[in-house]
Design goal:
The chain has 434 residues and is an alpha/beta fold. It has 19 helices and 15 strands. It has 3 domains: 197 residues, Rossmann fold, CATH 3.40.50; 86 residues, N-(1-d-carboxylethyl)-l-norvaline Dehydrogenase, domain 2 (Orthogonal Bundle), CATH 1.10.1040; 140 residues, NAD(P)-binding Rossmann-like Domain (Rossmann fold, 3-Layer(aba) Sandwich), CATH 3.40.50.720. The structure holds uridine-5'-diphosphate-xylopyranose (UDX).
Length: 434
């Protein structure tokens, strides 16, 4: 079976490499020559645990090319894994998906299945099928199938090789047969639905998780006011197997390439169909205001940040990735910069990307200790393991004023007992031991 994958971002590259790991020959296509060159040398252009190793292990089965004709012309299955970024109105931008569809329509010479892995609004697979029908250069049959991905960054390889489920949305037996063949070696439950249901499963899953996070963040905010402790509250909730413990970590809001975009896209689609989904709209609003929590908390201690030494620990939207998309730090740090703070920031992998977003006004440090030196306040935006293992006394030793605003509840309240510092976290009591 000859497989091609369009796009070598998180979705495309991880899919291609994991299919090769399961014995398929895969040709990955991208428009970025420098990325293709890197991948040919066995280097992953994205920071993802275990990916480079698998690329090198399967190098005989992986081809990287700029030449879409070579990849698509006689492929049996073509995966589309390009981005569907958010448009200004919140809807999904499908320009890259249709760009690939144009190329496929131009060059395919035999019957094949085009599999849409990118997250696309419900009904897009139907439209793509029509798009092919209108544009095909050669009289061949193209079957369109939906096969959403559920991988999380940082664990993308594991999430693909040991998927929680494989969802296949098809309208004909040929597409189902081919996709069953593609996933034969995978150890995961396989669910076959129609295309629209498959498209909806992706949005409904992501938006449910986003909703869960916004819900627990609102409960955390209330805990702060009424004197309950969110960590105990979530522990108590999680014994109920109907609720579970996952995605109940209170913090400064979800970021990343999926939740923000997918909540907005489904909300847009629902409103467009005169069927507003109020819960998702609320989740989006809660998330936006949650990102501002650290600055609001800090303003209790300082009227403004002009001339203050501010330490920032963690920039990425979560640990284990260098991705900054929709990271809460991108909301907060520019506010501090504009306010005239002297900012020192530390992140094990996110600094280079952050420079692209906020080019001036920040000193990047190699170590946490250097970042904290003489700081008047410290913000924790990402729960990196390096932060979580710190002995809280380091804040007292290094900072001028040991005031810590922990947006990710990296420390237990017990750890701070007796340490002469101010410690504010999310959904827990303020500790002021000065
Ligand atoms: C997510 C989904 O998990 C994945 O299934 C989908 O395919 C893509 O979107 P990802 O964006 O990589 O994956 O990250 P995830 O680990 O889900 O975290 C998203 C955001 O939610 C992060 O900013 C994280 O900090 C936040 N989060 C997560 C919380 O605030 N609390 C939690 O309990 C869990």
């Amino acid at each position: 079976m000859k497989i091609a994958v369009a796009g070598t971002g998180y979705v495309g590259l991880v899919t291609g490499v994991c299919l090769a790991e399961n014995g398929h020959s895969v040709t990955c296509v991208d428009v970025d020559a420098s990325k293709i060159e890197m991948m040919r040398r066995g280097i992953s252009p994205i920071y993802e645990q275990g990916l480079s190793e698998l690329m090198r292990k399967n190098k005989e089965k992986l081809t990287f090319t700029l030449d879409f004709k070579e990849a698509y012309a006689d492929a049996d299955v073509i995966f589309i894994g390009v981005g569907t970024p958010e448009k200004r109105d919140g809807s999904a931008n499908l320009a890259y998906v249709y760009g690939v569809a144009d190329q496929i329509a131009e060059v395919v010479t035999k019957e094949c299945v085009v599999v849409v892995k990118s997250t696309v609004p419900i009904g897009t697979n139907d439209k793509i099928e029509q798009y092919f029908a209108d544009r095909l250069q050669n009289r061949v049959k193209i079957h369109v199938a939906s096969n959403p991905e559920f991988l999380a960054q940082g664990t993308a390889v594991r999430d693909t090789l040991h998927a929680s489920r494989i969802v296949i949305g098809v309208e004909d037996a040929y597409a189902e047969k081919m996709l069953r063949e593609v996933y034969r070696g995978f150890d995961a439950p396989l669910l076959v639905t129609n295309r629209r249901s498959a498209e909806m499963i992706k949005y409904a899953s992501n938006d449910f998780l986003a909703l869960k996070i916004s819900y627990i963040n609102e409960i955390a905010n209330l805990c702060e006011i009424i004197g309950a402790d969110i960590e105990d509250v979530t522990k108590g909730m999680s014994y109920d197997t109907r609720i579970g413990s996952k995605f109940l970590n209170a913090g400064i809001g979800y970021g990343g390439s999926c939740f923000p975009k997918d909540t907005k896209a489904l909300s847009w689609l629902a409103s467009y169909n005169d069927n507003e989904i109020k819960t998702i709209k609320a989740a989006i609003e809660v998330n936006e205001s949650q990102k501002l929590k650290p600055v609001k908390k800090a303003s209790k201690y300082y009227k403004d940040f002009r001339g203050l030494n501010v330490a920032v620990l963690g920039l990425t939207f979560k640990p284990g990735t260098d991705d900054l998309r929709e990271a809460p730090s991108l909301v907060t740090v520019p506010i501090l910069v504009d306010d005239g703070a002297n900012i020192k920031a530390w992140d094990p992998v996110g600094c280079d990307n952050f420079k692209k977003h906020v080019p001036e006004g920040i000193t990047y440090c190699e170590t946490i200790e250097e970042t904290l030196k003489d700081a008047d306040i410290c913000f924790i935006f990402t729960e990196w393991p390096e932060v979580k293992v710190l002995n809280p006394s380091v804040f007292v030793e290094k900072m001028r004023h040991p005031i810590v605003i922990d947006g990710r509840n990296c420390f237990s309240v017990k750890d701070i007992k007796g340490v002469p510092m101010v410690y504010e976290s999310i959904g827990r009591a303020v500790i002021d031991n000065r």
